[in-house]
Amino acid sequence: MSAAQPFTALIGFGEAGSTFARAGHWNARGWDILDERRAAMPESGVNAAGSAEAALADAAIVLSLVTADSALPVAHECARFLTPGAIWCDMNSVAPDTKRAAARAVEEAGGRYVDVAVMAPVDPTALGVPLLLSGAAAENAAALLGALGFSDARVVGDEIGRASAIKMIRSVMIKGIEALSFECAEAAREAGVLDEVLASLDASEKQAPWSEKFAYNRERMETHGLRRAAEMEEAAKTLLDLGIEPVMTRGTVVLQRRAATKGKDKRTRAA
Question: What is residue 139's predicted lDDT score, i.e. its pLDDT?
């Protein structure tokens, strides 16, 4: 661990938090509401705290890595425990308005809030994952994140919500394509014409075989569909705030959640 690394608090210790911690070898303390996740923290070099308040004591930078629906309540709950001037990096996939509401809670309590958009899967990239940062303290946060080993953090503005707007609007396309390919493949299988449909799609696009895309998208949705559905609900809010009816985005929420249920059933049968 480098002496230049700031003392860090992790709030939430799911896939992202544990992946970052294992790669970073940080001087960090963590909190998660799940007992099993707190128990796993020492394996990644993180000291498990007995409460959110204990985890946040004296932390210079906080990485909030919770579920999308918990991002705002967690910010409200934790803000009062922040050391004055501590930077709260909200790395959750939520709408710009959600981040602005969280920022108000953090800043009213004396913390500094930074909107961080994680722009790719954290596994296997870990600390090399692209990050977009926005907010008045974004430059300060970028320096601290660099000291923690994050190698691709870029400031995109001083307005809270700008980084998340980029991610949410991009997600309309990325997660939407996944949902469309899933729906297409399901219909083609049901009709018994999958091979013909795949051949037709391959003939029109030569980058990668559609069989690989279908398989990849299905795996991502069945494994991560619940988290992605929550993210896409926030993307829908983003479009509504812009005056755009999120017709396809709402459909993506439904299909991502449905695929996750199917994946869970499949894993249960295999166990």
Answer: 98
CB 137 within 8 A of CB 114: yes
Q: Which two tokens stand for residue 81?
A: 């425990």
Q: What's the pLDDT score for residue 266?
A: 87
> What is the domain range of residue 142?
8-160
With vertex at residue 158, the alpha carbon angle to CA 91 and CA 100, rounded to the nearest 5 degrees, is 55
Measured CA to CA, the distance from residue 130 to residue 80 in angstroms comes to 30
Mean pLDDT per block of 10 residues along the chain (271 residues) reads: 78 96 94 97 96 97 96 98 98 97 98 97 95 98 97 98 97 91 90 94 84 91 94 92 90 94 89 74
Q: What's the number of domains the chain is made of?
A: 2
Quote the radius of gyration of the chain (alpha carbons, Å). 20
pTM for the model stands at 0.83
Residues 218 and 116 in one domain: no
Query: Rounded CA gap, 79 and 108, in Å?
Result: 8
Looking at the domain assignment, is residue 181 inside a domain? yes
* End-of-domain residue from the set 131, 160, 189: 160
**What local confidence, expressed as pLDDT, does residue 59 receive?**
97
Q: What is the structure's pLDDT at 40?
A: 96
